[in-house]
Design brief:
- The chain is of the alpha+beta class.
- It has 2 domains: 202 residues, CheC-like (Chemotaxis protein chec, 3-Layer(aba) Sandwich), CATH 3.40.1550.10; 64 residues, Surface presentation of antigens (SPOA) (Roll).
- Helices cover 37% and strands 26% of the residues.
- It has 9 helices and 11 strands.
- Strand 5 and strand 6 form a beta hairpin.
- Helix 2 packs across helix 5 and helix 2 packs across helix 7.
- The termini are far apart.
């Protein structure tokens, strides 16, 4: 049977709906302080995870270039995962044979773990001992290989510090740990940040896992997000440090005679001990070539037990800042 609602009935329905909405709003306002859930302590937000990804991408690129230059071979590093895990789950994922070491996080006073796939140890050691980086079955490293791997781990830790230095976090290598010792560095239920990197070499690939306690990272991560929101500006200290590092770098320097033309029969007749006379005047200067760029005109001289170059004049436009002096000495090979 169809029921028709009058105007009074309709007004009553709207009034009831309005009263229900008002009560709901009042309950939300009067519900008081929100309960703190201890199980969520150390939980990392999505913004923090994005900031961590940015830092770890920087670490992966820097490690790829530094290790590749040190080993003089392709060394690819790629960030593959970053997630929050209970420490017990991280322990379950440890490989049966892995190189595990503890890292000290300063100034937090906390301890993290770094796991290196043992498949990477043999080719890295082989390259550093003069080989070509051949793969080998997983095995425990010898004492000599252990000493070499310590230098490799210290380079990895150094790159971690460089990547995290914007927020004042420093990493320090402590020692290699057994699986049982590693299990005692944190409580099993503690939330951790686990970051995985894939390493590729010509004949082998493996993973490097970084495990950090999430609770102690929260303050650092908040600072990291705040730093990311600001426009980045290079400080005077970092610029001075960059100049200092560049000043210690080495570049190829060559003292090169001007081009000359010789008869082919004079070159064919050359024998050890012969003096080849060049059609270059005795007082004509040579070119000082630095990193493939002709920088100045110079004359060969002796500087102690070394050969040197006395600069006679700079090439116009060779150096924008004109930092070379008109008379100086530079060692050449």
């Amino acid at each position: 049977m169809e029921k028709n609602l009058g105007q009074d009935d309709i007004d009553a329905l709207f009034a009831a709906a309005a009263n229900a909405s008002a009560k709901s709003t009042k309950v939300e306002v009067d519900k008081g302080p929100e309960k703190y859930v201890f199980s969520r302590a150390g939980q990392i937000s999505n913004d923090q995870l994005r900031a961590i990804t940015t830092v770890n991408d920087l670490f992966a690129r820097n490690l790829m270039h530094s290790m590749g230059a040190w080993l003089r071979m392709p060394f690819r590093v790629k960030l593959v995962a970053g997630e929050q895990l209970p420490f017990s789950e991280f322990l379950e994922r440890l490989s049966a044979m892995a190189y595990i070491c503890s890292l000290r996080l300063e100034p937090l006073g906390a301890v993290g773990l770094l796991e290196l796939d043992l498949a990477l140890v043999a080719p890295v050691v082989d390259v550093l001992l003069g080989g070509v980086g051949r793969a080998a079955p997983r095995r425990e490293p010898t004492d000599i290989e252990e000493a070499i791997m310590r230098a490799v781990i210290e380079m990895i830790v150094q790159e971690l510090t460089l990547a995290w230095q914007a927020v004042g976090l420093e990493f320090a290598f402590e020692k290699r740990e057994t699986e049982a010792q590693a299990a005692r560095t944190m409580t099993l239920g503690e939330k951790t940040l686990c970051v995985s990197f894939e390493i590729r070499m010509p004949e082998v690939q493996g993973v490097v896992n970084l495990c950090l306690p999430a609770v102690v990272l929260n303050a650092i991560l908040r600072r990291l997000i705040a730093e990311g929101d600001r426009p980045r500006r290079r400080s005077k200290e970092s610029a001075a440090r960059m100049r200092e590092l560049l000043a210690e770098s080495k570049v190829e320097v060559l003292l090169q005679l001007p081009a000359a033309r010789l008869r082919a029969k004079d070159i064919v007749a050359l024998e050890p001990g012969m003096v080849l006379r060049l059609p270059v005047a005795r007082h004509e200067t040579s070119d000082l070539v630095v990193g493939g760029l002709t920088m100045a005109k110079a004359s060969p001289v002796r500087s102690g037990e070394h050969r040197g170059a006395r600069l006679e004049g700079l090439i116009q436009g060779a150096m924008a800042n004109g930092s070379l002096h008109s008379v100086a000495q530079a060692r050449v090979n």
